[in-house]
Amino acid sequence: MDLTIKTEQLDGQTHLYIAGEIDTYTAPKLRQELVPAVETNDVVVHLDEIHYMDSTGLGVFVGALKASKKNGTTFTLVGVSERIRRLFEITGLSSIITIDSGVRGGTQ
């Protein structure tokens, strides 16, 4: 499966709407969009349409977190399914990456 990424500026933040699967083949595409965004902007990543993610995807989010900390920006995941959330919890990443379960959807 492919990965699609739509970007939108909203309320002074960059919103990335991600759909598909995040794996070894699609993670570089996500990294290419996400890391530069968090280097200059507060970013909200909408994962409502992510159906599968492996450890490579987790690595992309860790890299984005490091870039946001280095540059003084914020980085939030929203619309995270229970299945994907469990990956973050098992690895302990849910304690260092902001996952906002109260925010869903968007304008896409």
Automatic annotation (TrEMBL):
Instruction: List, alphabetically, the CDD domains matched.
Output: STAS_anti-anti-sigma_factors (cd07043)
Organism of this sequence: Exiguobacterium antarcticum
- Family, per entry: Belongs to the anti-sigma-factor antagonist family.
InterPro entries on file? Anti-sigma_ant, STAS_dom, STAS_dom_sf
Domain STAS, which positions? 3-108
Which UniProt keyword terms apply here?
Phosphoprotein
Q: Which SUPFAM superfamilies match?
A: SpoIIaa-like (SSF52091)
Biological function: Positive regulator of sigma-B activity. Non-phosphorylated RsbV binds to RsbW, preventing its association with sigma-B. When phosphorylated, releases RsbW, which is then free to complex with and inactivate sigma-B.
Q: Name one Pfam family in it.
A: STAS
Instruction: Kindly provide the name given to this protein in its UniProt entry.
Output: Anti-sigma factor antagonist
Tell me where the transmembrane regions lie: none
